[in-house]
Design a protein that fits this description.
Length: about 120
């Protein structure tokens, strides 16, 4: 199983970015999540999606970020709008490693497969 993120970059506060995560190597209907880690801070879960397309968000990103998936392309997305400087960090895509999965999972130990991360920098 391999997950590869792309789409990070630098943007001014109030701007938007879309991250992508290509998953390969297994039947793609797994629970997937986006995490981020700011310098000097622990990694935190920001958005999740399960096999039925049910989504969950951390309070800090609710109504600004949208997680979605294209099963035909085995690709996960994170649309980030109204970005703030505190959104700066390395963003990771993760998969739990199940053929079918239901629920919202925000703890990193609940995920088996991780991408290498993509940097997002938001300037004020």
């Amino acid at each position: 199983v391999q997950v590869v993120e792309s789409g990070g970059g630098s943007v001014q506060a109030g701007g938007s970015l879309r991250l992508s995560c290509a998953a390969s190597g297994y039947a793609y209907r797994d629970c997937m999540g986006w995490f981020r880690q700011a310098p000097g801070k622990e990694r935190e879960g920001v958005a999740t999606i399960d096999s039925d397309g049910i989504t969950g968000y951390a309070d800090s990103v609710k109504d600004r970020f949208t997680i979605s998936r294209d099963n035909a392309k085995n690709t996960l997305y994170l649309q980030m709008n109204s970005l703030k400087p505190e959104d700066t960090g390395t963003y990771y895509c993760a998969a739990r490693g199940f053929i079918y999965c239901s629920g919202a999972y925000f703890r990193d130990y609940e995920y088996e497969y991780w991408g290498q991360g993509t940097q997002v920098t938001v300037s004020s």
